[in-house]
Each structure stands twice: as C-alpha cells, then as structure tokens.
UniProtKB/TrEMBL annotation:
EC number annotated for this UniProt entry: 1.1.2.4
GO BP field: lactate catabolic process
UniProt-recorded name of the protein: D-lactate dehydrogenase (cytochrome)
Region (Disordered): 18-39
Residue ranges of domain FAD-binding PCMH-type in the record: 36-213
Keywords (A to Z) from UniProt: FAD, Flavoprotein, Oxidoreductase, Transit peptide
Keyword Repeat: no
InterPro entries tied to this protein: FAD-bd_oxidored_4_C, FAD-bd_PCMH, FAD-bd_PCMH-like_sf, FAD-bd_PCMH_sub2, FAD-linked_Oxase-like_C, Oxid_FAD_bind_N, Vanillyl_alc_oxidase_C-sub2
Signal peptide: none
Amino acid sequence: MTIDLITALRARLGEDRVSTAEAVREQHSHGEGHHAPSLPGAVVFAQSTDDVAQTLALCSAHGVPLTAFGAGTSLEGHVNPPEGGISLDLSRMTDLLSVHPQDMDCRVQAGITRQALNQILRDTGLFFPVDPGGEATIGGMCATRASGTAAVRYGTIRENVLGLTVVLADGRVMRTGGRVRKSSTGYDLTHLLIGSEGTLGVITEIHLRLHPIPETIAAAVVQFETLADAVATAIDILQFGVPIGRVELLDDVQMDASIRYSSLTGLRTLPTLFLEFVGGPDSVREQIAAVEAIVADRGGLGFDWHTDPDQRAALWRARHHAYWACLAYRPGYRAMTTDAIVPISALTELVTGVKADIAESGLTAPIVGHVGDGNFHTIILAPPTPEGLEQAWALDRKIVRRALALGGSCSGEHGVGLGKRAFMADEHDPVALDVMRALKRTLDPNDILNPGKMLPGNVRSDR
Ligand SMILES: Cc1cc2nc3c(=O)[nH]c(=O)nc-3n(C[C@H](O)[C@H](O)[C@H](O)COP(=O)(O)OP(=O)(O)OC[C@H]3O[C@@H](n4cnc5c(N)ncnc54)[C@H](O)[C@@H]3O)c2cc1C
C-alpha cells in the first residue's frame, strides 16, 4: 500500500474521508464471522458513485486491492482483506433517491439499511421485505445474495432487484437493468452482480421492487415433541400450497437460548415453528385453518397466537436475535454458522442427520432456520482454542457434505467469502467454475476487487 495512493485519495476526496487510524482499520478488518481478521492499509468513506469511481480508478492505477464494506455483518470473512489495501466503506451512502408508489419501486444508495429504508417508506403503504437478521446494507445484501425470514413469500434479494449502478475495477460506471418488471434484452448483468461479493464491481445504487404492506398479519408459535414433526409440518405447509408469510424453525437448544436471551414467556424448550400469515382477512383466515389442520395431523402441541403488533414484533425480534442469543448462551465461545440448504423434500433427512452429528460431536450447536426455503443454520459454539475451532470446523464439513449429498448447497444465503471457498469445487461443475474464473479475469484483470475470496485458487494464484 503506497503513501502516494493515500495522498492521491485525500487530494481527490478530502482528508477526513481517508482514515489510516488503527481503530478504524481494526473495525474494517473483520465481519461477524469467526475468521482471522486482517487489517486494511486505509479506510475510504464514500458518499457518491463518483467517490467510488475515483477511488477505484486510483486503486487500479496503483495496483492496490479494494474490499467493499457495507455494515460488516457478513459471516464468512467476506470483508476481511487478507491482502490489505483499501477498505471502501459505503455506509454513508444512505439516500433514498426516488420512490414510485404507483409502480411499487424505488432507487436507493447502497449503504442504506433495510430497517432505515422501511422506516422512510412507512407512510407510502409499501415496504421492502428482504430481512436478514443483521443491520445489513442493501448493497451488502445484493453482494451476498441475501435473504431472510420472508423469502418464502417474497423471494430473496435476487427477486427484488430491478437494476444496479456498479463501478467496475477500472473506475468505469455501469448501469444495468431498469424500472420495468421484466426485459428480455441482453445478458443479465444485474443478476451476475447479485451474489458477486464485491469481486466483480462495487454496487453504488440499487433499483428495488417494493410490496404493499399486507392488510392483515397474524403470527403464531407452535411446539412439537420431535424435531422431525416440526420439519415435516413446515414441508406440508409448502406442499399444500399455503401462501405462508414466514415459517421458521428453532430446535430445542435454540429455544433454550432464545427463551433466556429474549425473555420469551409461556414456551418450552421444544422444537418450535414461528409462523406468520399475511394477506387480506379472508385469505389469512383460510391459511390459518389449513395450517391448524396440518399441525393437528403432525401432533403439534397447540398454537400460541400473537395478533397484537407489539407481541408480533417481540416474536420476530427474538427470531432475528437468535444469533446473539447463541453467543450469550456460551459466553466467550466462538460461533461458526452453517447455512446448508436442500430441496425441501430432503429437509427432514438433513436436519435429523445434523442433529445426530451434533450429538456425536459433543458440541453445543443450536439449529435455527428458514425451513420454508429448505435452509437452516447450525450455530456451532466452540471454545476459542485451536482444538475447539478444529472440532467445530469438522462438524461444519460434515453438515455441508450431508447437504451436498442430498442435492443441496453449502450456503443458501450467507455466501462464500473465505469460509465456504473450500466447498466450491465440491458443489459446482468444473466447467462452471472455469466460466466464473473467466468472468473474474474479464471484469477484474488485475484482481484488485476483494482478492482471495469466492473462487478456490483466486486469479492471482492462477496466473
Ligand atoms: C445476527 C445476524 C443474522 C443474520 N441473518 C441473515 C439472514 O437471515 N439472511 C442472510 O442472508 N444473511 C444473514 N446474515 C448475514 C449478513 O447480514 C448478510 O450477509 C448481509 O447481506 C451482509 O450485508 P452487509 O451490509 O453487512 O455487508 P458486508 O458484511 O459489509 O459485506 C459483505 C460482502 O459484500 C461486499 N459488499 C458490501 N457492500 C458492497 C457493495 N455496495 N458493492 C459490492 N460489494 C459489496 C463486501 O465486500 C463483502 O464481500 C446475518 C448476520 C448476522 C450477524
């Protein structure tokens, strides 16, 4: 990292927008995962597409790597810069640029969080539904192809982005997509960038689909004697075509952690489903009747209804805080989060197999997940010793192998980063991996964008 580059960046953007302070670099040396941190040489705070373009043009000229940083909530070492260089912080790019209520879309800067966006939109009757648990930025969510509890009804970020503004490695600005709901012209560059984890370009603006706030919302909690019954109920709900708003699984250990952390009352430490029904009043009544019948059939232990908005918010807050509940459950331990996903018909086999793997490992590893998508997390809590982490990593590998053997993926929503690179060759066809490497070389020939991530054997080491 050259002093010349820092001087040039300060001259273009202003002294206060380029920090080499130890504390600021430390904050940008890691995300929320367990991966070893690595310090960037400097942190640049962008406020516009032009700032990003100027920064990338300079990094490209100096051959210095750049890692985009949204909110740093990613879990697989995505934002850690093993090769140092610039960490480009987009969290000050928080403007809502335009809203079109009649077309139900809006354009935002990449650093706005989904919580802040929904707060601004609340009087329009519209909302943005993709809800990962962390306070993530929309740009970071695009870059990791994120989803959350509402994906079963509204889709992931992929289904909710219409177009992007992206700065390429050499500083050129590219606009993709548009405001229309569909278009069959050209290669789909928008969706090439979605999930590219800052390795192909830096997203600065996003055109998003919005949805009407549902007229009626009802939530329920239902508990089961066995994990298999809870999972089978979720599968039945989907296979019967109930347009459920959310269906989330918490196993007995996660319930123990969440009951303590979120002060949930009246619930037992049993496998549990959190459910949400959305739509018009008649539709919600129909959905509830259908799900009650399925639950009764599967031996559910009755519904605990949450119709009051505050009660509902508390329930979903507890779900979104599941990760923090796990960290508080074993203070001082490190959390390694798996993100396996399988076709829903294979979900019971995977979840029950994983539960047996956890028991065999002797580790504490709560299970929580978006079972409506066939996706769940095992939050493996490991003592912070090399042996503890190796034990956790061995369990992680076992879970991924099980998912892959059932036709699944090692990550439904968190992405690859550093942590899941080891599984890319097991999951993807070798020709597909070659095409991914070729795309990387074309868009980032000098490998300055988030190097060392995503692909096994990155471009630098391939040369
Ligand atoms: C408690 C908790 C719960 C979570 N729950 C979920 C969940 O339910 N679903 C889910 O999908 N994820 C979840 N996550 C993971 C995380 O929130 C997501 O991966 C999120 O999308 C990351 O957004 P971010 O803004 O924090 O991105 P960061 O962590 O800052 O960055 C993530 C990656 O994207 C790149 N990047 C960031 N911004 C840009 C940009 N503008 N242009 C190009 N590249 C960029 C970075 O270089 C990095 O590779 C959870 C995390 C936590 C801590």
